[in-house]
Amino acid sequence: MSRLNLAILISGRGSNMEALLRAAAAPDYPARPVLVLSNRPNALGLETALAAGVQAVAIDHKAYGKDREAFERAMDAALIGAGTEIIALAGFMRVLTPWFVGKWQGRMVNIHPSLLPKYKGLDTHQRAIDAGDTEAGATVHWVSPGVDDGEIIQQASLPILPGDTAETLAARLLPVEHALYPAALAKACAVVASVG
Questions:
Q1: Dist CA 9 CA 61 (whole Å)
Q2: pLDDT tens, 112-143?
Q3: Is 112 a catalytic site residue?
Q4: CA nearest neighbour of 134 among 117, 115, 116
Q5: This prediction's pTM
Q6: 3-class SS string, 17-67
Q7: Catalytic, out of 61, 112, 125, 178
Q8: Nearest C-alpha neighbor of 13 from the set 91, 102, 66
């Protein structure tokens, strides 16, 4: 079985990245991590990646000022240099330009902490609670030019409990995300592999 070269983009501690790295340690997983890239040099997930034997690179977006495309061209060069075939966004807190999305469209996925199409963007848990929803969840989707707007690959949900806060809901949802993302990424790999 051929495995796709996977790059994971992070901005922080990278708990979803860790879940992907654990899944990819299995010889039959369809992706092989070749790069973890962060826009923040102090992201804790970079150390985790290095400890797992994966190349870790920081490209500080602040060095590029307001020129988002110049930052993304530097990212793109690192991704190509690592032989990337598929990208997983795992807590990457930058809105990507149409240029970058267009370059990697159909080969880039994201995990979002809501049951899309509900609650795109930030503060998803508080918004679900405020709306009186009975369940919350996470969605893995293809990245498209619109924020949290791409075609859904897979979702998982859990009930919102009486007394839940945004913090408690987020904490209970994390293990759900950690199970969902590797499964959904495997599906995405199958799609990318079939296209060639």
A1: 13
A2: 999 999 999 999 999 999 999 999 999 999 99
A3: yes
A4: 115
A5: 0.96
A6: HHHHHHHHCCCCCCEEEEEEEECCCCCHHHHHHHHCCCCEEECCHHHHCCC
A7: 112
A8: 91
Which amino acid, one-letter code, is at 130?
D
What letter does residue 92 receive in the DSSP assignment?
-
Chain segment 165-181, per-residue pLDDT in tens: 999 999 999 999 999 99
Considering just the CA atoms, what is the radius of gyration of the chain in Å? 16
For residue 111, give every residue at least 6 positions away whose Cβ sits within 8 Å of its Cβ, in sequence order, or none. 16, 88, 89, 90, 138, 139, 140, 177, 180, 181, 184
Strand order of the sheet with strand 135-142? 56-58, 31-38, 4-10, 86-89, 108-112, 135-142, 152-159
Where helices occur in the chain by DSSP H, the ranges are: 15-24, 44-51, 68-81, 98-104, 124-130, 166-195
Give domain limits for the chain: 4-195
Q: What are phi and psi of 191, to 5 degrees?
A: -65, -50
As a CATH number, domain 4-195 is 3.40.50.170
Q: Which residue's structure tokens are 């799609």?
A: 191
Q: Which two tokens stand for residue 112?
A: 């979002």
**Which amino acid type is present at position 33?**
P
As a whole number of angstroms, the distance between CA 180 and CA 174 comes to 10
